[in-house]
Amino acid sequence: MDYRYMLLLLYFGAAVVLSSAQHENIPYENVEDICQECACLTAHDSDKRYHYLLSCTSKKFKHILARWPTGFGKNHDNVDIVASFSYNNIELLQQLPATDAQLTFSCRHCGIKNLQEPTFIDVPNIRRLDLSWNEITSDVLTPGVFRGPYRVTHYEPIQLVDLDLSHNKLHTLDKKVFEHTPNLTKLNLSYNELKVLNTPTVMALSSVTGLQELDLSHTAIKNVSMSIFKSLVNLRILNLAGNELTSVPDKLQLIGRSLISLNLAQNPIERFTEESFIGLKSLQNLNISYMPILKTVGKSVFTRLETLRRLDCAHNPKLVEFDMESLLHSSNLTDLDISYCALTAISLIVNVTDKSKTNISSLAKPWTHLHTFVTSGNPWHCNCSLIQTMEYIGAQHSNMDTPARCNTPYFLAGSIIPNLTSEEICSLKIPSKIKVVEEEPPRFLRKRYIMLSVVTAAVVVSIGVMLGFAIAAIRRRLKRDDFGIEPIRYTSVRSSNLSAFSHGNTNSIVVSGNGTTNPSV
Questions:
Q1: Which of 265, 275, 213, 211 is nearest to 238 (CA)?
Q2: Measuring CA to CA, how many Å separate 383 from each of 336, 345, 402?
Q3: Is the pTM of this model over 0.90?
Q4: Domain-wise residue ranges, the chain
Q5: Considering the domain 28-213 in this protein, what is its CATH number?
Q6: SS3 (DSSP) at 107
Q7: pLDDT tens-digit profile of 233-284?
């Protein structure tokens, strides 16, 4: 017995020495006069619980402190410490200085690439940890990072409840990475290139059975394993926005009793059907906005969502069908946003004997708690049915920054829908087909002017060709006839009588009997 006791003392002595050394070869920031360089604040509440704030944000630190400021005291029982080292150049996050206080620690935008293992062994009561916007990889995030103090045979867990690892370089998780954080209730892994939730990652997420909030948005995943939902029976908030999901994950009903908020925005889902949200008996908030190819929110989609309070279905540029009837089952609806889609009509059954004479707005509203109903940005076709539906819902009294306007028919285009009443619209005779007279283009682009130009050009070219042929023919004729004059023929001067006569030699000219003259020989 004494032998075991001595070994235990030796072990704890070595542990204390090693803990106090804290990697002495790695420097820490100088803690002296730290409150003159960083912000140190102290407060206490009515229960005499002290709250300390240490803000060393944007101080160009390369390390954290070796110990807490002396102003925080030595006894940290019943104490809260909030420490921020964000926006520094801390590539290696060292062991945090020892304290028994409930700690909130933030080191965002620090360029962290490595974590000293174990990082949180001396802060077992750390509650919130923000390491987002760093360069932490899967190889660095090991189970040993979150080890708590060693007690006889095992490492005790730390009290971490909120962990933010978003905007890092994680592509997978070690299957035992959360074995020392059993109290974790909020986990943010958004903006990591997970792409696939492989087996180790699924095992890691499934091990945190007390998880209530899980953010897997913008992680490029294409599906979510059913194995995760089997264990996360306490999950209340699930964010899957900005991924590659083409349908609602299967077996969501496994967490249907606990899930109150589901975000599916920015996923390439083309349609929602009656089976999409089956089993979600407690869902209160649903976001299906910013979906690039969503076309249909079909019949009976929301029939089973009786607890739904807020529905965001905005900025879906191809959405042409939205079933309002199924929302009647969500009697506690408070916020509805269907703005900036491609909707031309929505309708609800209004039990009125003579719709053209009855004031629809005086009827009992389908959702008595509705205070936000946004419909702007849609190409609404303002007919009797649409205006009656808007009045019935109470669109005129909803909170809208930009009012909805009519797109068709042409004589109501641009009209503000809340300014219209069903009495005046239902009494109008709207033609079923309207011939739209388009504005004529400039003259030089009109068909008749183009044809006239072509004909004119053809005539001018034809006349030019004919004149060309005529001129060519005249020139050839003139060249051949030379204007009707015989060509001059030249003779020798010596043989000419005129030449002899001009020299006075008349004897040489002989007159022949026939009256002709011949030169003498």
A1: 213
A2: 22, 9, 21
A3: no
A4: 28-213, 344-441
A5: 3.80.10.10
A6: coil
A7: 999 999 999 999 999 998 899 999 999 999 999 999 999 999 999 999 999 9
